Amino acid sequence: MPIRVAQTQRKEVKFVLGSGCFYGGDLVHLIDGGKRSISKLKVGDPIWSLNLDGNGLIEDEIVLMMHNEANKSALFYTFTTSDCNEVSLTDSHNIPVYCWNKNKIEIILASKVTINDRLIMYGKKVEIKNISINIRQGFYSPLTVTGYLFVNNISTSVFSDNYKVSSSTVQFVFTPIRIYYHLMRWIYGNGYIPFAHIQQGLHPIPAFYKKNIKHNFDF
Question: Which GO terms describe its biological process (predicted)?
Fold first, then answer.
């Protein structure tokens, strides 16, 4: 099935390329049973994530909003499953998929996902019915404890290819951030926000990692 580009109006639209983010309107599952749009997530929000194979739910938490661009538009790949769930990611964002020809789960770029791959949902691997490319306003990049985010019932990674290393490597080098987050909230209480909140743009912490991680982990 070919990939189609969704067009709504015949006018020039400026948008960002190369960012690794989620669409702000997509929803995550809160541990208390509710849902919250990614654009409304706050540090400390308790959320559900899936383990890599999708067979187990994990109690997770929002640690930091790494990138916040409410007023900018970006090019999104929107994946619709055979049971009508969908998730939108920018081109360089990572997502776990089941590769049927390799019989294993891999984490790949959103732009590399094909109609032959399967998305990971709770307890199952689901066929992709359609892949569309859309320009949407508002993109965000939350950091979680696990490195995953359960979005619209679909498992995703919180990392992108902008770090130029694997998601597992990025998760490893972010370990000091997670330790500091838990330590400060243990000392000062769960209402304490360990890191400065950035209203718009890229947070200094991921900016530092994106600049230095490739050099230090170039095996």
Answer: protein autoprocessing
